[in-house]
Write a structure and sequence with these properties.
Largest sheet: 5 strands, parallel
Keywords: DNA-binding, Repressor, Transcription, Transcription regulation
Helix content: 40-55%
Pfam family, one: LacI
Strand content: 5-15%
Structural class: alpha/beta
Protein name: LacI family transcriptional regulator
Radius of gyration: 23 Å
InterPro entries: HTH_LacI, LacI/GalR-like_sensor, Lambda_DNA-bd_dom_sf, Peripla_BP_I
Distance between the termini: 74 Å
Shape: elongated
Oligomer: single chain
Number of helices: 13
Strand order of the largest sheet: 2-1-3-4-5
Domain HTH lacI-type: 3-57
Amino acid sequence: MNVTIKDVARAAEVSVATVSRALNGRQYVADEVRARILQVASELRYSPHHAARALSSRRTHTIGVVLPDLYGEFFSELMRGIDHAARERGLHLLVSSCHGSLAEQRDALRATPGRVDGVLVMSPFLGSVESLDEALAPDVPAVLMNCAGSPRAAVLNVDNHGGAFAMTRHLLDVGHRRIAFIAGPEDNFDARERLRGYCEALATVADAAEPWVVQGNFDEASGYAAGEAFAAGERPDAVFAANDMTALGCLFALRKAGLRVPEDIAVAGFDDVPMARYVNPALTTMRVDIASLGARALHLLLQHPALGGESGTPVDTASLIPHLVVRDSSATPERRMA
């Protein structure tokens, strides 16, 4: 026998209207009541008639997610945060990767009207604001992540500049003066901000060497190539990689060449992906709560009036602040004096 919304309301001891609001992810439902309703609906195996829901509410109860890639621990953690927040509100996800292509990003966004209620977009491409504005459907609410910005949508960013500044200052404070930076892609917003933070931090110490920038691609391969070059040629005191996967590739290359980390070269990264704490030596990095970035972006999207949010309600678009995590891959002052 088919379970109806009335059956869920009766078992949860609430009204049909409250069940509807809870299952549709709307406001004005207490967290404990929402949790009870979702639990009851799950136990009764209640399955709403999605076509009927869409016709009655003019909503699909689906959120689009357009990312530059789906590969790697960063995107896995990001999707974990988005998915958890969506499931709490009975929402489904429609995920697309643009594989680093502005054209594919545009095509994915132009396919969203009628299929999703709102869209989360990570668009790190520099100079893409005009293209992004053209691709965003005017009647589909959107939130951008790690993006230079757009007048068409709210933006939620990581403080990449501040995080890179803090990491570089840490390496300087330990006593390193020749600090190489393995950069990310030249057309990437996050990479540019991290490079800017690195350069500005170096300028705060009079006896620090000039910026030493090696081009990378936010991946293990470019980090490994940079590590091989450092091991075979001119050697810095420390290497700061623009993300953890680059740092791990560099670390593997240095260890393979017989160099000790951090005794011969210190290594640091950015993001604190799960693997960072399990390599040997464990990686010093800037911790970004990547899953929280995804969850916050979805919560921000749901505050849009078209998705049940209250018009005029203040929204939290403050940047996520990375936190320094010092592990064995970078020497502390005590270890350098030992």
